[in-house]
Design brief:
By secondary structure, the protein is of the alpha/beta class. It has one domain: Glycerol-3-phosphate (1)-acyltransferase, CATH 3.40.1130.10. 37% of the residues lie in helices and 13% in strands. It is built from eight helices and six strands. It has a six-stranded mixed sheet. Helix 4 links the parallel strand 2 and strand 3. The longest helix has 22 residues. It is globular. The termini are far apart. 30% of the residues are buried.
Length: 231
């Protein structure tokens, strides 16, 4: 039996003691609001980002945001468009950056290996969706790699969870060989959202590969079509 007084949380880390109860909305606690407002100010001042319209993202429930990826600034710009907390699927190596891991944990991001065989990341993503969270996937698998060889995991997560998909296209964010240099470059950034896409119904417990490929291709074309509206 523990000797700690009732209600005392000495065994918890500082992050666990201040973490949101659900982590779905930025308005759930003061720290989340502070981080969101700070990011919004950064996006407006450094990247001249202006977002006045209401976003099409459902206010609650599981959802998947699918977007092109042209800059390390993209996640910050996307986060400034909605008052929902976005959990990103991020390359595993970024989780080892000192001080950055805390921020990724706060958003409940999912680390992913780049070899496309990360079953554990798929399971963690499905678990976050089951909790009603908003996941963001950059299906190119890296910055400006194009849409010719997308990750099928994007379509799988939607089909398996039944979560709707919101296509998005980021333009104007700064490009640089250095992740950190792009963070401080000035730009004029913009986000365009597409219509919400609902996954097709299939046989329970089974996802055919043809269905998976077709659905993934449909999602990628929806993102690509948004680029035409930016031209």
């Amino acid at each position: 039996m523990s000797s700690e007084p009732a209600g005392q949380e000495t065994s918890k880390t500082p992050l666990q003691r201040v973490r949101r109860t659900s982590g779905v909305l930025v308005d759930e606690d003061r720290l989340s609001r502070f981080l969101w407002n700070t990011n919004r100010l950064y996006c407006k001042s450094r990247h001249r980002f202006v977002w006045e319209a209401s976003d099409p993202i459902p206010p609650k429930g599981p959802a998947i945001l699918v977007c092109n990826h042209r800059s390390s600034v993209d996640p910050f710009i996307l986060a400034a468009t909605t008052r929902r907390v976005i959990s990103y699927l991020v390359a595993q190596e970024y989780c080892g950056i000192p001080g950055f891991r805390w921020f990724l944990d706060w958003m409940r991001c999912v680390p992913v290996r780049r070899d496309r065989q990360d079953v554990g990341a798929v399971r963690r993503s499905l678990a976050e969706l089951k909790k009603g969270r908003l996941l963001c996937i950059f299906p190119e698998g890296g910055i400006s790699r194009g849409f010719d060889n997308p990750h099928l995991g994007m379509g799988y997560l939607s089909l398996r969870s039944g979560a709707p998909v919101i296509p998005a296209f980021v333009s104007g964010t700064p490009t640089s060989d250095s992740v950190w240099k792009a963070m401080f470059m000035r730009s004029r950034s913009r986000v365009t959202f597409g219509d919400i896409l609902r996954p097709p119904l299939g046989r329970p417990g089974r996802i055919d590969r043809d269905q998976l490929v077709d659905w993934t291709d449909h999602l990628m074309k929806s993102v690509s079509n948004l680029s035409a509206s930016e031209a």
